[in-house]
Specification:
The chain is α+β, with helices and mostly antiparallel strands. The chain has seven helices and four strands. Helix 1 crosses helix 3 and helix 2 packs antiparallel against helix 3. The protein binds FE2/S2 (inorganic) cluster (FES).
């Protein structure tokens, strides 16, 4: 796990440590950040929260809401929580759908991008917010979407 991911998981741990329903809420937030629940991060989270590996596995397999595999090479989490919605989160979602040609909740045909709408990414001060594979784009406007997506496409030589 790289330092950036560790910092994200640490923030989730700080938020949920000692609270009721911590595991489910923390896994939910982990999926919000990464688009799925990466196993290494989930294990670290469990270790820090004092939850055994078997319990995490049980939780991930019991609730089919949780995705344990990345649904696309680049997972785009776009926030439509209250703070982001007020500042135009819905128009970001529309713009992304237009740019990628798939609705939220789907993966592009080339398997590169998966878009998910989340309720809060924990950085409301930056609203509206989008995260792509752990990279945060805050105070985002629709006119920036195309160039951001193109930067990620360029990594593929497209
Ligand atoms: S509502 Fe979007 S980051 Fe909190």
């Amino acid at each position: 796990m790289n330092e950036e991911n560790k910092a994200k998981v640490d923030a989730i741990i700080r938020k949920w440590s000692g609270k009721r329903g911590a595991l489910i809420m923390a896994l939910h937030e982990l999926q919000g950040q990464f688009g799925y629940v990466p196993w290494e991060e989930a294990l670290y989270l469990g270790q820090e929260l004092g939850i055994p590996m078997a319990k995490i596995y049980e939780c991930l397999t019991f609730y089919n809401y949780f995705k344990v595999k990345a649904p696309g090479k680049y997972v785009i989490s776009v926030c439509d929580g209250t703070a982001c919605h007020i500042k135009g989160g819905a128009s970001l979602i529309e713009e992304l759908e237009k740019e990628l040609g798939v609705p939220a909740g789907a993966t592009t045909d080339d398997g590169l991008f998966y878009v998910q709408v989340v309720r809060c990414l924990g950085c409301c001060g930056l609203a509206p917010v989008m995260v792509i594979n752990g990279v945060t784009y805050g105070k985002l406007t629709t006119d920036k979407i195309k160039s951001i997506i193109n930067e990620w496409r360029a990594k593929e030589g497209n």
